[in-house]
Amino acid sequence: MTDLTSLTIAEAREGLANKSFTSLELTDAHLAAIEAARSLNAFVLETPEKARDMARAIDAKIAKGEGGPLAGIPLGIKDLFSTRDVRTTACSKILGNFVPPYESTVTSQLWRDGAVMLGKLNNDEFAMGSANETSCFGPVVNPWRREGSNTTLVPGGSSGGSASAVAALLCMGATATDTGGSIRQPAAFTATVGVKPTYGRCSRWGIVAFASSLDQAGPIARTNRDAAILMRSMAGHDPKDSTSVDRAVPDYEAAIGKSVKGMKIGIPKEYRLDGMPTEIEKLWSEGAAWLKAAGAELVDVSLPHTKYALPAYYIVAPAEASSNLARYDGVRYGLREQGRNITEMYENTRAEGFGAEVRRRVMIGTYVLSAGYYDAYYIRAQKVRTLIKKDFEDCFAKGINAILTPATPSAAFGVGEKAGADPVEMYLNDIFTVTVNMAGLPGIAVPAGKDAQGLPLGLQLIGRPFDEETLFSLGEVVEQAAGRFTPPRWW
Amino acid sequence: MSVDATTVRRIAHLARIAVTEAEVPHLQGELNAMLAFVEQLSEVNVDGVEPMTSVTPMEMKKRPDVVNDGEIPDDIVRNAPETQNHFFLVPKVVE
Amino acid sequence: MNVSVKPGKLIKGQTGDWEVVIGMEIHAQVTSNAKLFSGASTAFGGEPNTQVSLVDAAMPGMLPVINEECVRQAVRTGLGLNAKINLRSVFDRKNYFYPDLPQGYQISQYKSPIVGEGEVIVELEGGRTATIGIERLHLEQDPAKMLHDKLPSQSLIDLNRAGVALMEIVSKPDIRDAEQAKAYVTKLRSILRYLGTCDGDMEKGSLRADVNVSVRKPGGPLGTRCEIKNMNSINFIGQAIEYEARRQIEIIEDGGVIDQETRLFDPNKGETRSMRSKEEAHDYRYFPDPDLLPLELTQDYVDELKAKLPELPDQKKARFIDSLGLSAYDAGVLVAERESAVFYETVLAGLADRARDGKLAANWVINELFGRLNKEGHDITDSPVSAAQLSAIVGLIGEGTISGKIAKDLFEIVWTEGGDPRELVESRGMKQVTDLGAIEKVVDDIIAANPDKVAQAKAKPQLAGWFVGQVMKQSGGKANPQAVNDLLKAKLGI
């Protein structure tokens, strides 16, 4: 029998259905893998007892022919998702030992469909970061290394634990969230498939909020098919989220292998950056060529406001975050640091509980919303956002089905390499992904090749609103052409 | 636009984050780097452009006026740093 | 100056007359089962933190979903205030830290409220009225309740009230003295109660007022205002305004300046005092709540609510005057409280001839019933005499079965013993004697026994009243006064 952890979700589904192995066996294999991979720091909480209980329960159901679309599949859950009776911290000291008396809508749908929870995955504190270095539990290590080097690399962020765990075969798939690139950038850094669905496709209820108008949950998996399988369970209307869309969830898996013949693929010139590594440039052309070979038509398009997406994002996201994080005040849950009066209690609690990056973003967000600056910053940024969205709408109005871009401007970098004085250097990681959040569109990052040092690189496909299916079809074309990439095990 | 040390302290207080005097210059530098970065937005012509209010346009659904929640005081205070008889406690607030 | 503004009572200072300028922000709790953005109950007085959902406690990842009834109630209130309904309004976050605010922000409406400008006509003494402009009405969350005096060094927080829907109703600065201010709150409260959009219970805090007061020389530029927060009694509002206006006048006349500040009214001392502890430059950093979408209404929805609006006090008053011939004063008294109007209309509904007896019914409700209720500390809602009983009494008078005097005895019996007035009249022989033969006999007897009085009455017809009294006395008050009068006039030849 092959190592159960190397199976895809689709393969494991078959194995479970024809009784080749049980969910308990599958779960135990993953629990062992997690234990052996603690040096990656991907999990911040392992829940082996819960995992085995869930696996046994689902095995009993499978035996009765019940089950569900994810019956018996062991998954990792980003620590941003509230899990009932299981500590949820958003990897921030300020939540301390917060144990939610509730389950997020997205994870409850996964359990409804029979999935098994292995534990909670590391992420940047409150999902603020692009390297998973801001977590209060310490950085996550990328299972990928440069050829011939022992330098530890970041997995990207903020869903670094999710990407690292999926790439290192610690779980079959993981939940993640994406506010400016937090699913797609780590997916690209780890050769996994990451999907940022259309805004409103997945419920935000029970997910610790970073920036409400940008946050979306999505899956990270090892193949397009697996991501499609997870998406179907994660998506859907939730009356508890006013921004959740009441729209039927399609069978995303049916889009895998569907012909892309005749589809128009936009190649936006604004994504061709000065000084972009030639490997990225090459990968992009290669990806375009694969799609063309599959019958798609390539069209040069223009998204003129692209360069303004990142600066606009760094106004809108911190502004919303400064307000969303106001509830962490040491009164009802989480950390409390005493003070001589209530104001000092707040100030001490929040200074102690928030890490440097969160403090910085909360402060910049507070500033751009403050009296006298609101119009110049926040309103202007929201106007620019309207223009960014219009760029895409114009493009889609011309019949473009999807847009192909690089996922990141570079491959994974070393832990601590970009921790310099200028936070903006780190923010540039999201330059290709952030436009998608600003416009509320779906985006997928798929592994497409490696750089000269053997590190994975990804391509991004951006779709029309609620047309994740097209992204899965196109992603599958890239996957078939590029193949799959697994990091050599060194941990 | 850029911020001075006084503004950094004012913003920190508004955000209820204690900062030490030693932290101020560092924070000031970081905030100014971010402000310099977003400064490029001023070159965009936004005349007549509506600021975005909802990225996915749709009608806001409303809940029916039904009491279907509450009666969970144990859950409400379960994670609280300090409680008494299901009340949350905070240092005395003087009005 | 707004043409509709009624000059108020001026206050004499050492340097001459001063005018008071008042604007008010009324916070009215919306009548609904569940809270504005959660499914927790709005009921008053529950055990601590029982009427609290995870949303109200601002647990991580919780999201607001708006209650349709609160929207409906706000629109109905706007219509009741003759105000413009905004078909598109936006919920904003008002950011500040305070332990009564779990989210660290209050969801409110800042730039785009659900209701725009409107007006309220208020009744003043002597039948005068004033029109007070409404600036806006918006929906927002009520904060939590804090208890400060239970423990020596800590405050307690109960989130039961957190998230209950509030309507903040902002007036224009059209109010000119304490009387107008009190009349404004009274009228607004009455309208809300007619609409059923707020129970108006100021003791329980369902209706609270922030009062902005400034003074100026009549016609002069506006002065600096002070805001008196959280007033929960109409009388206190009057007292606070009187005190605050005089305080400001004294400061200015002594050469001082008014600091714009928030003040609290101390009902024990009858004074306002500065809330310096809360004085800190506020910077609320309002921005549209990204967890919600703009609130969009259709004109059809608004029109339908408008068509179904109940009759409001002004309309009811006009109808009572026009169709029943009530005086403006009586009509005003009857409609001032919804319960009184309901009672009166129930009395009316029981009458066989409303046109004939409507006015009489108003007299009985206002003079006999209200007088007695006041005297004995009853409320109209727990009146010992029901509307049906009073209706029967009025009907008995109107149709001539009993006299007004007997009716008072009957009212007394019904008040103390209860019972069906018609049956009581029968069983206790209280019926008025309309049998002319019987009355004539009594009249004849009295005339025969008092020849001197007859002579006097013939000389001075106004003395005939003595005979009326005697007849009524002998008949035990049951003789029909009109019949007695007619007979006496004929027999005495006057």
Q: Note the main sheet of chain B.
A: 2 strands, antiparallel
Please give the largest β-sheet of chain C.
Answer: 9 strands, mixed
| C-alpha-based Rg of chain B, rounded | 23 Å
The CATH architecture of the domain at 5-42 in chain B:
Orthogonal Bundle
Kindly report the greatest chain-chain contact and the residue count on each side.
A-B, 76 and 54 residues
| Uncertain runs of chain C | none
Strand content of chain C: 15-25%
- How far apart are the first and last residues' alpha carbons of chain C, in Å? 64 Å
What is the number of E strands of chain C?
16
Helix content of chain C: 25-40%
Rg from alpha-carbon coordinates of chain C: 30 Å
**Shape descriptor of chain C:** elongated
The average pLDDT of chain B is 95
Number of strands of chain B: 2
Helix content of chain B: 25-40%
Total helices of chain B: the number is 3
Subunit structure (chain C): Heterotrimer of A, B and C subunits.
Catalytic activity (chain C): L-aspartyl-tRNA(Asn) + L-glutamine + ATP + H2O = L-asparaginyl-tRNA(Asn) + L-glutamate + ADP + phosphate + 2 H(+); L-glutamyl-tRNA(Gln) + L-glutamine + ATP + H2O = L-glutaminyl-tRNA(Gln) + L-glutamate + ADP + phosphate + H(+)
EC number (chain C): 6.3.5.-
GO molecular function (chain C): asparaginyl-tRNA synthase (glutamine-hydrolyzing) activity; ATP binding; glutaminyl-tRNA synthase (glutamine-hydrolyzing) activity; transferase activity
Describe the 3D structure.
- The complex is a heterotrimer of chains A (491), B (95) and C (494).
- With 491 residues, chain A is an alpha/beta fold.
- Chain A is built from 15 helices and 11 strands.
- Chain A has helices at residues 9-17, 23-36, 48-63, 105-112, 160-167, 184-190, 224-234, 278-293, 306-324, 342-353, 356-369, 375-397, 423-427, 434-439, 468-482; strands at residues 43-46, 74-78, 116-121, 173-178, 193-196, 216-221, 264-268, 297-301, 402-406, 443-450, 456-463.
- In chain A, the strands form 2 sheets. Chain A has an 8-stranded mixed beta sheet, with helices on both faces. A 3-stranded mixed beta sheet of chain A has the order 1-3-2, with helices on both faces.
- In chain A, strand 2, helix 4 and strand 3 (116-121) form a beta-alpha-beta unit.
- The longest helix of chain A is centred in the C-terminal third of the chain and has 23 residues, at 375-397.
- Chain B has 95 residues and is mainly alpha-helical.
- The model of chain B has no long low-confidence stretch (mean pLDDT 95).
- A two-stranded antiparallel ribbon of chain B has the order 1-2.
- With 494 residues, chain C is an alpha+beta fold.
- Helices cover 39% and strands 18% of the residues of chain C.
- Chain C is built from 15 helices and 16 strands.
- In chain C, the strands form 4 sheets. In chain C, strands 1, 2, 6, 7, 10, 11, 12, 13 and 14 form a 9-stranded mixed beta sheet that branches.
- The termini of chain C are far apart.
- Classes of the chains: A alpha/beta (491), B mainly alpha (95), C alpha+beta (494).
- Chains in contact: A-B, A-C, B-C.
- At the A-B interface, helix 9, helix 10, helix 11, helix 12 and helix 13 of A face helix 1, helix 2, helix 3 and strand 2 of B.
- Strand 2 of chain B pairs antiparallel with strand 9 of chain C, so a sheet runs across the interface.
